[in-house]
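job 3f2a | input accepted
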Amino acid sequence: MTTTMLRRTAASAVALGAAAALIAAPGAQAQSDTSAAVASGQTMLKLDAGTAKVLTANKIAVSLVSPAKNSKSGLTFPVAPSGSSLDPRTYAGTLNHRGGLRFKAGGKTLSLTNFRVTVGSSSSLNAVVNGGSRATIISLNTSKAKIKRTGINTGASGIVASLNATGAKALNSYFGVKLFKSGLKLGTVRSEAKFGEIVFAGGQTDLALDGATLTALGGLGVSPGIIAPATLAGTTASFPITGGKVNAETLAGSITHSGGISLTAGATRVELTNFDIQLPKLLLQVNGGTPAAAVDLDATNARVQVSGRNVTVSNVVAKVNAAGASALSGAFNTTVPQVTLGVATVKGQAR
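job 3f2a | predicted structure (351 res):
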């Protein structure tokens, strides 16, 4: 193995560490409601020149375990989607990888595979050792890390990966050397995560109220109104998005809102609040009761557009279903039909 190849391969260990480092943004917490599932990605490593020379001088050969590979960007480890979930803004969470590194010296072989980065109050990288149990071998320093957002995806660079005491002791013991020291700088890492989920941090859902429905409600003596912080402009009601998470492709999931709609007839007032879009249903609370799927959402002709971190889903038809009509009929002591509420447009801002 050439010195150049050795440097690249050795860097793979760093790459994993770097990936973890990316996740280890200052103050980051473990996985939470703000984390999103990672669908794919990769971590690229650049081995510290001094460390590479030491490995070469001591005849320790390093090679990659497939599917890790060499690329123009260096040693590259693909992300394993299963179990990988990060906060798109801070990179806090867990990032798993496939492949690994193999060390050979003195007739012995040591493999480190399936790197897993865990980020919280401190950040570290662990790996499966020779196909057995896991060991935490790398510490990550993200104090100078830079996070780059590209649409709903996130990348990180400038993470420093260093061998910890456990890793140094294990390597020295296995190969019968005193070469590895705790704190040995392995190198720097750059990582890219492509998310399979969208976590919403804000935005609003507009509902263009159906004219025929407004006329029908008037005929029943029911006057619609708006509940703050929702707003009304003409016949379009807007409800602030408070959170939620959906699949980036299918939109399956939940989008929560504040505010609502009031319906008043004489002394009777019904408040419909806390809208929760869960395609193909809209859950809401009637006078603060248990959330119920009172509205059907038809997204057959919906259009989805993503611009930066802005996600727009338009042309979603909202219609009061049988359960919703029954609840309203009981509240007003009259027959409320299964009317079309209007056409909704979700204008969400991804975290």
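job 3f2a | The first strand starts at residue 36 and ends at 47.
job 3f2a | closed
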